[in-house]
Amino acid sequence: MTFRVSFQFFTKCYSNVVIKELSNNTIIAKNWLNQLNISSIPKNLLKERFDRSSGPGGQNVNKLNTKCTLSLPHVSGCDWIPQEVRKQLVNGSFRYYKKTTDMILVQADETRSREDNRMACKTKLINEIKKHCTFQNVTRADKMKKWERSKNKDNELRIQKKKTAK
């Protein structure tokens, strides 16, 4: 699908340029990803568990359960995450996704504090999701034509070299 746009900053050079349209799901997913932060994660979906830590903290880590393990079960059916993002997390190589149990599992034991480790887990989760998920940008039609011409020219040169080599 294509549509015509004439943005104010395109007006001088590119008015009424044909631009490839992004799908509605992709736009929703990009916006969701941009707005994703610690406070936007629904607390009722995450399961927290605290265990004995092996990180820094001396005797404190031997006595108290400070290591935080966050799990987000049923990722493939989770409505909180947009469909485009879910596809990338489940089908890609997202390091915290466990395919056998269909869950995301994040652990942190960097500090002596439970709260700090809980925040570290959430921060890890958000940063990894943002790092892992990528979306294609809108490409102008004139750029696409330019690259197509370049590709065709290179292809013709390659064929010419093959013919002369025989």
UniProtKB/TrEMBL annotation:
Residues 144-166 are annotated as: Disordered. It comes from the Eukaryota. SUPFAM superfamilies: Peptidyl-tRNA hydrolase domain-like. Residues 40-162 form the Prokaryotic-type class I peptide chain release factors domain. One of its GO terms (biological process) is mitochondrial translational termination. InterPro entries: Mito_Release_Factor_mL62 (IPR052104), Pep_chain_release_fac_I (IPR000352). One of its GO terms (molecular function) is peptidyl-tRNA hydrolase activity. Residues 144-159 have a biased composition (Basic and acidic residues). This is Prokaryotic-type class I peptide chain release factors domain-containing protein.
